[in-house]
């Protein structure tokens, strides 16, 4: 019998069993979920998060920050943002993509990794 790439060998299934019991409960739902994202809604409500977010946004190039703010924080539609900033539709999407990447990197370094580092210190 040929093995399919989707079939688990007995040794692979044995290795995965501890992971299933650690991460999932018997009905298949997450046991606790990913640790650094336990409650993302609570993180958004924390003033410290918004202070760090503002620092990250201020580190973006000015036009990129404006485009991102108009779309995500003010809630303008794509066409309105393009009209306000003078960007073409294609340039808008490139700018938004780059802004999201830079903000994500900055928030991961300054907010989410900070939380992980503090947790590691507590349990060390």
Please tell me about this protein's structure.
With about 120 residues, the protein is mainly α. Helix content is about 70%, strand content about 0%. It has six helices and no strands. Helix 3 packs across helix 6 (about 90-124), helix 4 (about 60-75) packs antiparallel against helix 5 (about 80-85) and helix 4 (about 60-75) packs across helix 6 (about 90-124).
Give a nutshell description of this structure.
This protein is mainly α and about 120 residues long. It contains six helices and no strands.
N- and C-termini, Cα separation: 49 Å
Structural class: mainly alpha
Q: What overall form do the CA principal axes indicate?
A: extended
CA-atom Rg in angstroms: 21 Å
Fraction in helix: over 70%
Strand segment tally: 0
Mean pLDDT: 75
Q: Into which percentage range does the β-strand content fall?
A: under 5%
- What order do the helices and strands follow? HHHHHH
Could you describe the largest sheet, including whether it forms a barrel? Answer: none
Are there runs of 5+ residues with pLDDT below 50, and where?
Answer: 1-21, 119-124
Count the DSSP helices.
Answer: 6
């Amino acid at each position: 019998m040929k093995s399919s790439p989707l079939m688990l060998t007995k040794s692979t299934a044995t290795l995965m069993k501890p992971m299933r019991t650690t991460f999932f409960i018997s009905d298949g739902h997450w046991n606790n979920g990913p640790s650094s994202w336990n409650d993302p809604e609570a993180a958004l409500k924390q003033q410290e998060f918004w202070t760090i977010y503002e620092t990250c946004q201020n580190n973006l190039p000015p036009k990129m920050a404006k485009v991102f703010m108009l779309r995500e924080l003010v809630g303008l539609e794509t066409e309105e943002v393009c009209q306000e900033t003078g960007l073409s539709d294609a340039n808008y999407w490139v700018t938004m993509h780059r802004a999201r990447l830079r903000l994500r990197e900055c928030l991961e370094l300054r907010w989410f990794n900070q939380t992980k580092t503090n947790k590691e210190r507590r349990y060390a």
